[in-house]
Amino acid sequence: MAKPVLKIEDLHVAIDGREIIRGLDLTVQGGEVHAIMGPNGTGKSTLAQALMGHPRYEVTKGTVTLDGKDLLAMGVDERSRAGLFLAMQYPSEVSGVKTSDFLRAAINARRGEGNEIPIMQFIRKLDTAMKTLEMPQEMLSRYLNEGFSGGEKKRNEILQMKMLEPRIAILDEIDSGLDIDAIRIVAEGVGSMLTDEFGVLMITHYQRLLNYIRPHFVHVMMNGRIVKSGGPELAERLEAEGYDWLKEELGIELEHEETDTTVSQEA
Amino acid sequence: MTVTDYDVRQLNLFDALHVNREEPAWVREKREAAFRALDTLPWPVFEKMNITDWPWFQFRPFVSGRPVGSRQDLPEAVLTILNTFVQGAPTVVVENGDLIWEENTSDLNAQGVIVSDLKRALIDHEGLVKRYLFQAVSGDHDRLIALSKNDRLLALSDALWNGGLFVYVPKGVRLAEPIQLILAAHGEGTGLLPRLVVVTEGDSDLTFIEHRLSDDEMTTVHNGVSEVFVGSGARLRFVSVQTLGQKTYDHTRRYGVVEASGRLEWVFGEVGSAHSAQLTVSNLVGEGGSADVKMVSIGNGKQRNHFDLRNRHVAPHTESDVLAKGILLDSARQIYHVVTKIEKGARGSNGEQTARLMMLSHDARGDANPILLIDEHDVKADHAASVGYVDETQLYYLMTRGLSRKEAERMLIFGFLEPVVSQVPIESVQAYLYTAMERKFMP
Question: Ranges for the SUF system FeS cluster assembly SufBD core domain (chain B) (predicted)?
């Protein structure tokens, strides 16, 4: 199978008529880990949700393709079946739906009718993934994310990613609310999937996640654009010195101080 | 709107009874009095739905069932349901006014258990039946709230009831297997007017399962009255599934009387397509008795459903709990009117109720009315009610994993109903409920 390619060109995204992303270009390929960093309110989560197709985020300009296909023309579920995955910052709690039943339905949704995953194969795969993530079996019989701690929800996101085997995964602040042990486990879970057929776009505030998942590229977002790109050393400098030097260097004033995550899950 | 041009009020009741019935005089007198009062009695009050223009009187009365020689001769729809029931357990099939099939019932006699066509029971066990028939409705226990003491739909059943079942479990008999009933309407314009009497004497234990159905293509009136008696320390699980067809007008009344430390667990699956006006009342008349209602419903098309659930605490230390969940599709209308009434003197009682409705269409309309009527201060009572649209954030989340909107909705619906359905005591009935609801959701 060919390397996956997610290609974003001149993307503009608005929420309720207000433009949040203002001309963003980025290409993520299989085998690559990209980290997007930046202060709160600069559009990082907006980028993630817009790529996934959240109905509240309106793409006003630009193109996005996945493996050459027009991603923006696809519905949310089609994007997922095409190989895109979004590990959410705030996953929904869904009462009454068992995690294992949901996972099986999601896998079968991409395999299609008549080609459902054999139950034993599903169980084995699930078992392996849960061991890697050090998740207890009983989580499977609990309702999806209901009453899960922040850390359990994040692990559950990565579990879903491992089960669905996307081509490109976006991890939206997968490290927030996790202690160091959990970050290590989650990062190993992601790292173990890295091949030429899998690319990652990580959104994070903190360098510490990058100690566990070494990015090939680091991008800084401000005011809805990528303002600087570099290697891992860029993240290290941001961790040590903050964003002020960069703002100064580029002559940028931040426009919104409120966080962009407050609307990220609202439909 | 009309079921048939025939109006049962034109019936010559005397002739009809003379031809069809050998009934005790007290039953006949009840019929005649009720028949005479049909036009003068008030309508029952279903507060948020006008049901007075539904064709309650347009049906053919006293239609017989068709006897069958073997299980395979049963109508296909009946057979399908029969196969979802617990196999090997005592089961009877009533079509229109007659018991047309029974299986595995012979062992019951040895334990003194009676499962009998009600007409037959009035002959074989008249004294016993007389102690219960009509008594939960209009006996001493009925000093009941809001609904008029008598009304024309109840009188319609009293006058023209046709067939039904008498179930009697003697003191101390605990049945491991359920007793099962299928009640089917057959024939265009037929009125399905069963009376059901279920009696569990002290310290007995019974699971009763009934399934009522009519064909989608057939215009029918269902007017069914059930009277249920739970003796001291007895436990009765009463599971009722209805798949009445879309041209059926349904009036269902269920009355429960629970003696000291008795427990009555109702489970209702309203998964058919009929227009319904239903009332279920549990009277907790003995100290320490309890009533529990678990109910799911799904409405589609232009379906109209009014579900009225009432728990009445008369004796001290009684408990009641209602958990009802409804799904509304298309332009369906559904009302849950849930009343917890704690009478003066029922100290130390606890009444709880929850009704939740989920709408999947902006043309649907749901109402959940929780009502607490408390006349005693030393009690606990609690209610929760909600009506809302399916959660778009949850839908989005499921869709990001590749589920289509329809599949995601289905998952949310089933998740919403799961806490209720999972408590249905028979697994095959759980599966049936899901299948029936899925059929309505994904035709």
Answer: 187-416
**What value of ipTM does the predicted structure carry?**
0.94
User: What are the pLDDT digits (tens) for A6-63?
Assistant: 999 999 999 999 999 999 999 999 999 999 999 888 899 999 999 999 999 999 999 9
Whether the CB of A216 is below 8 Å from some CB of chain B: the reply is no
**HEC states along B366-422?**
EEEEEEEEECCCCCEEEEEEEEEECCHHHHHHHHCCCCCHHHHHHHHHHHHHHHHHC
Q: Domain containing A209: what range?
A: 5-97+165-263
A77 touches chain B (CB under 8 A): yes
**Residue among B332, B309, B334 nearest B387 (CA):** B334
Cβ contacts of B414 on chain A, cutoff 8 Å: 96-97
Is B301 within 8 Å of chain A by CB? no
Residue A14: inside a domain, yes or no? Answer: yes
Conformational region of residue B258, where left means phi above 0, alpha means psi within -120 to 50, and beta covers everything else: beta
Full DSSP string of A149-166: -HHHHHHHHHHHHHHH--
Distance CA B189, CA A262 (A): 59
CATH of the domain at A55: 3.40.50.300
CB of A55 within 8 Å of a chain B CB? The answer is: yes
Chain B residues touching residue A108 (CB < 8 angstroms): none
For residues B298 and B437, is the Cβ–Cβ distance under 8 A? Answer: yes
